[in-house]
């Protein structure tokens, strides 16, 4: 059974919202307006499909975005290089342990390493974090600090991974990446003119 990672579609936002708000204490709840803001502004917003069903989603922002998360702000304050921030990843409970999370992280890293030298995220520490910390450690993340999140009383382990491919890509292409579909920005692809029928 293959896993397909692709850009989210607008009509799927209600399903994404339900996935998020059923994920438990490891993910902050969302409302429809905030999710819509993510849809409109996130640099990376992709879903996983398995057997034709929505199996999860991942949302990420580049360090130059106006994202207002306190954890994103922590990274902006503490890091001196550009970074790509994974705001949230959710895998449907029935799909956990089946490779969806690893497929998401491989896809997000492939996107990020063309544009950013560092990949960042956080793990909430107050609700049984060992599995999440082990997962991220196996992907090469390391803790670079902790953040006590205001207004939600949650302590987060702030994780970072250096992206070794970034320097070669940057030295070779600068900011002018080749014009191939899999390199395109999500918002650029959404704005691209659609071919008309002939």
Automatic annotation (TrEMBL):
Gene3D superfamilies tied to this protein: 3.40.630.30
Span of domain N-acetyltransferase: 3-161
Enzyme class: transferase
Record organism: Stenotrophomonas aracearum
Superkingdom of origin: Bacteria
Protein name: GNAT family N-acetyltransferase
Keywords noted in UniProt: Acyltransferase, Transferase
Lineage of producing organism: Bacteria, Pseudomonadati, Pseudomonadota, Gammaproteobacteria, Lysobacterales
PROSITE patterns (alphabetical): GNAT
Keyword set includes Acyltransferase: yes
Keyword Acyltransferase assigned: yes
Record-listed E.C. numbers: 2.3.1.-
GO molecular function per UniProt: acyltransferase activity
Signal peptide as annotated in the record: none
